[in-house]
Amino acid sequence: MTHSYPFIPYSREFLPEETLRLRSQAFYSDINQRRSVREFSAQPVPRDVIENLLKAANCAPSGAHKQPWTFCAIANPQLKSAIRKAAEAEEYENYHGRMTPEWLQDLEPFGTDWQKPFLETAPWLIVAFKRIYDVVDGSKRHNYYVTESVGIACGFLLTAIHEAGLVALTHTPSPMNFLTRILNRPENERPFLLIPVGYPAENTLVPDIDRKSLPEFTVWFE
What we know:
40% helix, 8 helices
């Protein structure tokens, strides 16, 4: 097969079956400890750690390799305070009329409400924006599978955060247009996900929940 663009050899160590089994089990055992945390410590996290996490997220696959994401990393206290104030305003409306009774009932096991102090306490907020299009030499260039691509990149990011020994929360205060305004993002970007990142607060509690078992979410064709 010939290519009009340059290709390079792909090389990675071949692992025997038993090693594959052990590594896959070890990864599952570790990632199964990942939990969403809403109580953060104010203990600082070095910027270079956050840089490494974002570089890991940038390794995600994307449609036509467009990498249609922008990650805003926020440690500035004034910006975090502004984000909290705007997010709580939207969340108050959600909890007092926008959400259906069924939705509110589904949230009860998690003990959530409209107040979001973690948006100021966590040392970093990472806001993922999806770039609907890019501007190249003054012209719009379409991006492909934007939502899917950004979702995968956020999955990489959340995994990297856990592997680094930190905790995170996937926060979606809908609508999120206030993030575009506060962070002065361009017209081609849309807010996708708000992720507080840091250490858990001392004596943090998380809901006692179970994950679906393998037969509940898989169908096999062999």
